[in-house]
Specification:
Elements lengths: L2 H10 L1 H6 L6 H7 L20 E3 L6 E3 L3 E2 L21 H17 L3 E4 L2 H10 L8 E4 L14 H15 L4 E4 L11 H16 L3 E7 L3 H10 L3 E7 L12 H8 L2 E5 L19 H16 L6 E2 L6 H12 L6 H16 L15
Parallel strand pairs: 3-4, 4-5, 5-6, 6-7, 7-8, 8-9, 9-10
Antiparallel strand pairs: 1-2
Length: 360
């Protein structure tokens, strides 16, 4: 099947896919708890037998157990991006992102999440000609819920349309606007978002609806109130734990919602080195990254953590973590706990809010 034929098939299947996604079936609920039989590998995008795949809630998409987050930090100096990837001087940066995407595809990673204009334009460009191999999560946050002028149904549709056009995309798999970070988004805004999604979904521009936030209560209320929301994104680090009662995960399981865990490495605060090849702390940091991924994946309600990967080695390292024994032994648990305590003690001032995500 050619890429164009595959794209046409995906677009024809939009309504059929989402119609079954708005209300979870008994099988779907069981799958959300991690007990469903996996589908035919041929139906899993970019399938690799060495990668684990998890069901993304009621979307019924099967995504890799670790995915590619859109943020890039600590890139090699010669690959640092300017404002947007539009000129020849971006070549080192685009080469870096292309190499990482190539490696992700080789490893069976099949979802990339982009949450800014620069990230969207970059990954759309890197995926040109091979879009059908990677699920795309899309939030042009400058034109969605975080800004008052973009909170009506009409403006949200306009924001998505303009983003798709600028990026040269026909559709996105998960349109997941970025809600207010530290306070609940008003219900009227979410009503507008849902109405906008229903329009763009009918037009074949967005397959599923998600939302990201840094506010526990808002996310719980949102998924319990609007069944159209099939995916949520929130922080989950090596220090995070599930509340024994009234957890956000209770609502996630009940509503059969897919979860992407953002900031798994707490903005790199868990690492000792600078993430560059040859750093004397590289081996220790690689181990901490793998321990963190294994720890996060122990929670069956998390579909996948989505770290930002700055080189091919990091992509290989997190993919290796997926293949390693899931449970940490006593020595590994103690090592990760010490590192997580140091991580929280060393958070940058603009990431102090991660302390609120120790209990979820």
């Amino acid at each position: 099947m050619t890429p164009l034929e595959r794209r046409a098939m995906d677009r024809r299947d939009f309504l059929k896919c989402a119609a079954g996604a708005t209300v979870a079936s008994a099988i779907g609920l069981q799958a959300g708890l991690g007990h469903a039989a996996k589908p035919d590998p041929a139906t899993i995008r970019n399938h690799n037998p060495n990668m684990e795949y998890r069901r993304l809630g009621k979307t019924d998409l099967w995504v890799s157990a670790v995915c590619l987050g859109g943020h890039w930090k600590r890139l090699p100096a010669n690959a640092a991006p300017w404002d947007l990837p539009e000129t020849d001087r971006m070549d080192p940066f685009l080469q870096n992102r292309t190499e990482v995407m190539d490696k992700c595809q080789e490893l069976g990673i099949n979802y990339v999440d982009a949450c800014s204009s620069g990230e969207i334009l970059t990954y759309a460009r890197v995926l040109k000609g091979r879009r059908e191999s990677m699920y795309f999560g899309f939030s042009w946050y400058e034109h969605d819920l975080r800004f008052p002028e973009w909170r009506t149904t009409e403006k949200l549709i306009q924001g998505l349309d303009e983003g798709l056009q600028a990026a040269g995309l026909d559709y996105v798999d998960v349109w997941r606007p970025s809600a207010l970070m530290d306070e609940p988004q008003p219900d009227a805004d979410i009503e507008a978002m849902v109405a906008a999604f229903e329009t763009v979904h009918a037009q074949g521009k967005a397959r599923f609806l998600g939302v990201s936030s840094h506010h526990h209560g808002f996310l719980k209320h949102a998924i319990e109130t609007w069944p159209q929301i099939a995916v949520i994104l929130f922080p989950y680090t090596a220090k995070s734990k599930e509340l024994p009662q009234d957890s956000l995960f209770d609502a996630v399981r009940a509503q059969d919602v897919g979860v992407f865990g953002i900031k798994p490495f707490a903005s790199n605060s868990i690492f000792k080195g600078d993430s560059q090849p040859g750093n004397p702390m590289a081996e220790q940091d690689d181990e901490l990254a793998r321990l963190t991924i294994r720890y996060i994946l122990q929670n069956d309600a998390i579909t996948a953590p989505i770290p930002g990967l700055i080189n091919t080695h990091q992509a290989e390292n997190v993919a290796q973590a997926v293949k390693e024994r899931r449970e940490l032994d006593l020595h590994e648990s103690a090592k990760l706990e010490r590192a997580a305590d140091e991580m929280m003690a060393n958070l940058p001032p603009d990431y102090e809010w991660l302390r609120r995500w120790e209990w979820v």
